[in-house]
Design goal:
Elements (H helix, E strand, L loop, with lengths): L4 E5 L10 H8 L3 E4 L5 H4 L7 E4 L2 E2 L2 E2 L3 H13 L4 E5 L9 H10 L4 E4 L4 H8 L13 E5 L12 H7 L2 E5 L5 H10 L7 E6 L7 E6 L3 H4 L7 E5 L6 H4 L11 E4 L3 H13 L3 E4 L3 E5 L13 E4 L2 H13 L11 E4 L2 H8 L14 H9 L7 E7 L8 H4 L5 E12 L15 E5 L2 H11 L8 E4 L2 H9 L3 E4 L5 H15 L1
Parallel strand pairs: 1-6, 1-7, 2-3, 2-6, 8-9, 13-14, 13-20, 16-17, 16-18, 18-19, 20-21, 21-22
Antiparallel strand pairs: 4-5, 9-12, 10-11, 10-12, 15-19
């Protein structure tokens, strides 16, 4: 059976700008063929089991020729795979998407085009530049300034000047002098506002706004990937600038918790201006053969994570039981997140310790127990022994410690964890196991260059063992981690 090729525009880099359809297809991809300009936050969404093929092209350095890329897409589809061809920006705007479909069409391979948000619109927007404004212009013209070999630019500068619209040049920072010179020679006013915008929508975003005559000198240090914008609307950049006014702008946060648990934290950091790369370093595997028979007759049920709550109730139903079997049983939750997961099921936790860690929970529970009480703990196979120590010291209390899931280390199929932390970046850890998973993915036990935001003491202790530079949240919650990120950003400002 022939597979399908999905030509997906990945947008300008910010994962929040990937379309819903693009994200859906990427999550189900069996093969991903990706470009160099796809943002790391988007690449992090590739499923770990997918076959990944890097065909990224940089100026004068192509890993694969266009013909080879076309053949790869055809071969993967003919092998029956669901193929996502992931391209930066929009695949039909200087993305050579049409060329890649020609061979597929010749062989009857089904395909779908998923448009992407182009950097020609998004990057100026993230820099406060509207590409059209009724007081300045009524048209926008997108031009490629990429040379073929060492030849001259194939641009009709006279025609561009006559339009009177905003001009956006893609792939042209290396030809900045020629672009500005061509426009000046065609009669454009030297004082026309112009800008070079670098890595727009990312934590490394920066801009130089100048005039057409001075831009080559003022932006000489700007490198690819950058775009050039020419027109009166560039003068609005400082007035309409918004991205850099957010408190976490310019900083990257690598969130390491399981993807299904990362949404709330990632969203909060993004809303505050941080660039977020979700890099799950662990996954949770339910133990389908785990038995809950020891629950009968217990006085206390102990749950230690939101995931544990979900897996516990799934097992309960799978074993022919439901919430009614908990009648008369008190429930202890390790922290606010676990209590919230219970509340979503209409259950109020009877005990949440003041400090959200295993020892604090064990001590708080021990203070509530009497001789003869029975306790049923449902948690990860790798659960902390600190929970059991205060209970064992009591005597006369029967404790059943049951593993209902286990934590498995995982690593991204494409990205290098340490490379993501270059510059002003933090790794964000919500458990000791995410720290261990990050170290395993990085392939080293020496992580002295890593700056870590840790949710609590046990997580921080684990990070410290790898030599990380650690900061610990005052409260072991998502809110506490966000407040810590804000505090660190304020100190560095």
């Amino acid at each position: 059976m022939i597979g399908t090729v999905y030509l997906v525009g990945a947008g300008p880099g910010d994962a929040g700008l990937l379309t819903c359809r693009g994200r859906e297809l990427l999550a189900r991809a069996e093969t991903v063929v990706y470009d160099a300009l796809v943002g790391e936050a988007v690449l992090a969404l590739i499923p770990p089991e997918a076959r990944c093929i890097d065909v990224g092209k940089r100026s004068k350095h192509h890993k694969k020729t266009q013909a080879e890329i076309n053949e790869i897409l055809l071969e993967e589809a003919l092998a029956g795979r669901r193929v996502v061809r992931l391209k930066g920006g929009d695949p039909f705007l200087f993305g050579r998407g049409g060329e890649e479909l020609e061979l597929l069409a010749q062989h009857g391979v089904p395909f779908e085009i998923v448009p992407g948000i182009t950097s020609a619109i998004a990057v100026p927007a993230y820099n406060g530049i509207p590409v059209t404004h009724r007081d300045f212009c009524s048209s926008v013209h997108i031009v490629t300034a990429h040379r073929r070999g060492d030849g001259p630019l194939d641009i009709d500068f006279d025609a561009l000047c006559r339009t009177g619209g905003t001009l956006v040049f893609l792939m042209g920072v290396s030809a900045l002098g020629d672009v500005c010179g061509g426009l000046l020679a065609a009669g454009m006013a030297p004082e026309t506002p112009a800008a070079v915008l670098h890595r727009g929508t990312s934590a490394r975003q920066k801009r130089v706004v100048s005039t057409l005559a001075r831009l080559p000198a003022d932006a000489a240090a700007m490198e690819a990937p950058s775009i050039i914008v020419v027109g009166p609307v560039c003068a609005l950049a400082e007035t309409f600038a918004w991205a850099e006014k957010r408190p976490l702008f310019g900083r990257r946060y690598v969130v390491t918790r399981p993807r299904e648990r990362a949404l709330a934290l990632s969203r909060r950091l993004r809303e505050l201006g941080g660039e977020v790369v979700e890099l799950p370093t662990i996954c949770l595997r339910p133990l389908e053969d785990a038995r809950l028979d020891g629950l009968d007759g217990c006085r206390w049920l102990v749950l230690t994570s939101p995931s544990g709550v979900e897996i516990f109730f799934r097992l309960l139903l799978a074993q022919g039981r439901d919430v009614r079997c908990l009648a008369g049983i008190r429930i202890a939750a390790l922290g606010a997140g676990t209590a919230a997961a219970l509340a979503q099921r209409g259950i109020t936790a009877d005990l949440v310790p003041p400090t959200y860690n295993a020892r604090s929970l064990g001590e708080a529970l021990a203070a509530r127990l009497a001789p003869g009480d029975r306790v049923f703990i449902a948690r990860a196979r790798q659960g902390s022994p600190e929970l059991l120590e205060p209970l064992a010291a009591l005597g006369g209390v029967q404790v059943t410690d049951t593993a209902i899931y286990e934590t498995e280390l995982t690593r991204p199929p494409v990205l290098e964890p340490l490379a993501l932390l270059e510059g002003d970046a933090w790794a964000v850890f919500t458990s000791a196991s995410t720290v261990r998973g990050f170290a395993a993915a990085a392939g080293t036990g020496e992580l002295t260059g890593v700056r870590a935001l840790c949710i609590g003491r046990q997580t921080a202790d684990q990070a410290r063992r790898y030599g990380m530079e650690i900061r610990v949240a005052k409260a072991a919650t998502i809110d506490g981690l966000v407040e810590l990120a804000l505090q660190c950003a304020k100190e560095e400002a």
